[in-house]
Amino acid sequence: MEDMQLSERKRQILLNAVEDYIQQASPITSSVIQHKCAKNLSTATLRNELNALEAMGYLKQLHTSGGRVPTSKGYRFYVDSMMADIPLDKNVLSEIHALFNRRTIYLEDMVNEIASVISKATNYPTVVMLKGFEKLTIRNIKIIPLLTGQALILIETNSGIISNSMETDASIPQQSYIDASNLLTQTLKDCTVADMIKNIKSHKDEMSRKVEEFSGIFDIVIKSLTSLIDKLSQGDNITAKGELKLLNNPEYSDPESAKKVLEVLSNPEEIKEVLSEDSADVSFKIGAEIPVEELQGLTIAKADYQVDGESIASIGIIGPQRMDYAKIASALKFVAGEGINLKALTHKKEAKNEQKQAQKQKTRK
Amino acid sequence: MEDMQLSERKRQILLNAVEDYIQQASPITSSVIQHKCAKNLSTATLRNELNALEAMGYLKQLHTSGGRVPTSKGYRFYVDSMMADIPLDKNVLSEIHALFNRRTIYLEDMVNEIASVISKATNYPTVVMLKGFEKLTIRNIKIIPLLTGQALILIETNSGIISNSMETDASIPQQSYIDASNLLTQTLKDCTVADMIKNIKSHKDEMSRKVEEFSGIFDIVIKSLTSLIDKLSQGDNITAKGELKLLNNPEYSDPESAKKVLEVLSNPEEIKEVLSEDSADVSFKIGAEIPVEELQGLTIAKADYQVDGESIASIGIIGPQRMDYAKIASALKFVAGEGINLKALTHKKEAKNEQKQAQKQKTRK
DNA sequence: TGTTAGCACTCTTATTCCTTGATTGCCAAA
DNA sequence: TTTGGCAATCAAGGAATAAGAGTGCTAACA
């Protein structure tokens, strides 16, 4: 009974019901459906249909006389049917594009920047987690001595700069830093961050012979880079932005219910698990699909930010199950680098092409 | 009548009343005072006293029969009397000290770091604004060419590094960057960030002659540094952390009232004015003293973060008027660099000295 | 003159009861 | 299969009531 195929009419009713609830946040009644998409049917008929959908687990009643509300299964059905043909929301896309001008060239700042942009564009709290940074390829390494006795290591990768400080020794001559930088660049060029330390170690003796005066520098470098990688892979690399936007949703007008969720958001460790899962495209975790108890009532939308085909960061948008799936899918598609649309929006010259393509897509429907 | 001197008994009653209200968040009644600090007086007597304090404007009644609550004037009295002898809260101090290990050497990240630390330690939303960065003195300048065609300018100051990227030209030889860096350092050493651009301009021709091959580099440098200073002085340099902690206070259990304030916090431009004011030590703006309408019901505590005697950043802690003034004053004193305690906590060897000093202070009372 | 006991008064808060209105479920007829 | 009709259900809101906490005032007391 549960899994029997829905009739086209039931399908339409269910999709409209969920859509209406997402927009209005008030329970779906037979007459709402009638006005929205079934003017030629009576409310009694629709009541029968709603009753059937309830029996199948797509809807549920909060009170005997209070209309119905989608279940997680109902949302899931809606999302799956929508994802087959995501209606890209032009407004959201151009808003993101306007905001997304990567002012920073530091990889670590990127996490904040993406989170801010997505949160602003979607109006939902957004969590971004740096991951897969080990897959970045190294282009150039510079060690820059500072006057404080420290030095800065800058690693230029194919997506931004990673930097860390290291303790040094005032007696080290400038030339040693330059030698070491050049040797490191030669050795590590085009290898991944993951292999970085291994490669330094295996070439350490060879490199040390070539460094003028202070050959112990590579030990310090290894120490600093180890701590850098620790820092990047642990905790510090996850940020939430726009947490307060959760309060815009009527389901969280009660501060107590909001607080539980905000608690999790302010310490996003628990979401890591959800964001860590690999998923090529935009995906949704709805209600019970989320393995965190405090977030059962929510939906987490997720996508990966890609550079050269590798996932560099995971982006999660968090909201009530009754969230604006279309808008969010649009936003995530953008950042996940959906080829055509990203490029089209990036180069204004191609804007017209893009419109043509969009029209083609429409006609294809 | 209003400004007449308070009797010692009235003073005690008022201070205890405010303190109790800060802790309990429920209106002060005659019997509460009796239990707290006047076991030998009857409630009727205390009612007379409370009545008098109300007439003087220190307290007010919300309802005829609901106990009394401090007015802004009442809080002001409490704070002024407390600030004369700030009871440093050891727990808060050691917590801040544990958190405050300035991992970053970038000036701009410092703003975030301080805000996080203070907010965590005090449990109130904290806003930090970078200011007076122009007074930092320059120690060293490095231009670092990147493979992307950009270059990074690093300015080492007496308090951290400021950096910005600049567009360059792939044809520029390495040596030009080194020459330019050295010349800039020679020219700008020990001058302030404020004078930086002026000094570059006045030495530009002279420096240009000394740079191998590509002498136009200083025009690019000037352009980049101008935009850097713009960035630092405009908007971007103010951050709020721990906004959600506002919800911990019962006065904001109603989400509507909380929202107004959170709105301001999420876009802290309006607080700039408050934070901009110079104030040597820890200061408080209570209620109507705040020139922002949405924040009338609140208190903003403020202090400056000092480096070499100059105010580099302003720190504001925001909470209801009924906030924990002692804890907050402690925290701000720490960051504002109250000599003894800062150093004492920094060097564990001196911990014993500090205890002795604390005892001396006690005996002085 | 300052302090206290006593008592009436005020006002909030919680509880209860009632009404209203929206919505459903079901049944019988089309 | 659809529909009209009708009773049943329940949330939301309002009015009335009761309970409780605290004050103000007055008169007596030290």
Can you tell me about this structure?
The structure is a homodimer of 365-residue chains. Chain A is α+β, with helices and mostly antiparallel strands and 365 residues long. In chain A, 48% of the residues lie in helices and 18% in strands. The first copy, chain A, is built from 14 helices and ten strands. In chain A, the strands form three sheets. Chain A has a five-stranded antiparallel β-sheet with strand order 7-3-10-9-8. A three-stranded antiparallel β-sheet of chain A has the order 4-5-6. In chain A, strand 9 and strand 10 form a beta hairpin. In chain A, helix 5 crosses helix 12 (325-335), helix 7 (174-188) packs across helix 8 and helix 8 runs antiparallel to helix 9 (217-233). The longest helix of chain A has 18 residues, at 193-210. The two termini of chain A are 32 Å apart. The A-B interface holds A 105, 139-140, 142, 144, 146-148, 150, 152, 154, 156, 161, 165, 243-244, 247, 252-256, 258-259, 262, 266 and B 105, 139-140, 142, 144, 146-148, 150, 152, 154, 156, 161, 165, 243-244, 247, 252-255, 258-259, 262, 266. The first copy, chain A, binds a DNA duplex (30 and 30 nucleotides) through residues 27, 29-31, 41-45, 47-48, 50-51, 61, 63-67.
Note poorly predicted spans of chain A.
338-365
Strand order of the largest sheet of chain A: 7-3-10-9-8
Instruction: Please count the helical segments of chain A.
Output: 14
Overall geometric form of chain A? elongated
What's the order of the H and E elements of chain A? Answer: HHHEEHHHEEEEHHHEHHEEEHHH
Q: What is the radius of gyration of chain A?
A: 26 Å
Sheet with the most strands, sense and barrel status of chain A: 5 strands, antiparallel
User: Biggest interface and its residues per chain?
Assistant: A-B, 26 and 25 residues
Helix content of chain A: 40-55%
Distance between the amino and carboxyl termini of chain A: 32 Å
Mean pLDDT of chain A: 85
